[in-house]
Amino acid sequence: MTSKLAPSPTEAGCDRAPGLVSVESARAALLDGVTPVSGQATVPLSLAAGRVLAAPLRASFPIPPFDRSAVDGYGLTGSGAGPFSLVGSYPAGSHGPRHVRPGEAVRLLTGARIPPGVCAVAMQEGCRIEAGGRLRAPVLADGENIRRCGEDVASGAPLLEAGIRLDPRHLALLASAGLCEVPVRRRTRVALLSSGDELLAPGAPLREAAIHDSNRPMLAALLAASGAEVVDLGLLPDRRDVIAGALAGAGGFDAIVASGGVSGSEADHLLGALRDAGGEGSWTAIALKPGKPLVFGQLGEARCLFLPGNPVAALVGALLFARPLLARLAGHAPRPLRGLPARLAAGWQRKPGREEFAPAMIHDGEELFVERVGRPGSARLTPLVAADGLLRVGATAGTLRAGDMVEFFPFDGCFGLA
Description:
By secondary structure, the chain is α/β, with parallel strands linked by helices. The protein folds into four domains: about 10-40 and about 185-330, MoaB/Mog-like domain (Molybdenum Cofactor Biosythetic Enzyme, Chain A), CATH 3.40.980.10; about 40-60 and about 150-185, Molybdopterin biosynthesis moea protein, domain 2; about 70-145, Molybdopterin biosynthesis moeA protein, domain 3 (Beta Complex), CATH 2.170.190.11; about 340-415, MoeA, C-terminal, domain IV (Beta-clip, Beta Barrel), CATH 2.40.340. Helices cover about 20% and strands about 30% of the residues. The chain contains eight helices and 26 strands. It has a six-stranded mixed beta sheet with strand order 7-4-6-5-9-8, with no helix packed on it. The relative contact order is 0.14.
């Protein structure tokens, strides 16, 4: 699956469009030919959140299964104002009278089954009880404040289609249909590693010229939030033979995600190591800031995605490329990264040629204004922590001014179920 999208690293200029490919083209090449993983399981409904539905489901009975009161009020046998004779009170779950006769009314609480003879339910706020226990009610249309049997889902109608990634909304619908377990695809298995002689595991004592690896904890959390089973292969040195050996031993995975070692220098060995391990891949220069270099390929059955080592670039690359790759492998359609229209609170000078993502915070006000946090830098994590999300600027945009429109991606949407 060698790509013809981009020239070699030495032929690509850093901030000029020639030689760079768009994010959309790179993502299309990455996803070309990717098919869902095989295998499925049946899991309890309580464990189904985040899993991908393996088969379509239909309702075995109507939802709701009977006519129900939509409000606390009084079930009436006619459309007039009464007076009506009250003949009982029925909360949800109780059995009402066999039949309510003309001129009679019954007290019904929300969710109560509608007794035969009741044609509408008057909200209690619009009713009054007169002397002698007689009820006066407003004039109602037939069926008012009644939830009809099957109005949500008819018996035999589709509940959910295969390929949906289940979230709390879907679980509620399945529970209402009486399902206690569901068929799901097996989880996508992803191997994760970092490469770099300068990297140390979190918690290890710092030594001269070394830093702690922040990418694996970040990427592991993001990939797991996408529904994958993540296996940490650890830190690898900048040695082609060691990386090739680790890759060659990473059998049984559906995807391999790595960071570091993709810029194209003499110390960057991920692409060469992939080929040495028996895989194939290509280096691509993307019109993206941060995160221009990207390597993707295949090793056995595993799709490979190698991201830049700087953490902001790795995060942006994971959101733009790893998440849609995992979605396709998991058997559901990748969602486009949907942004909110926002205005810039302050502008900055920039060169056109690359699509740019930057940490941004929200300014309070009637309209959504966002401001870039801190000075630019793909290795700086504190702006990410201070930000509310990422703003996106199109590749053709030059110098930006306050009030210009951008797209804004809140982090709660980026990192939640997708």
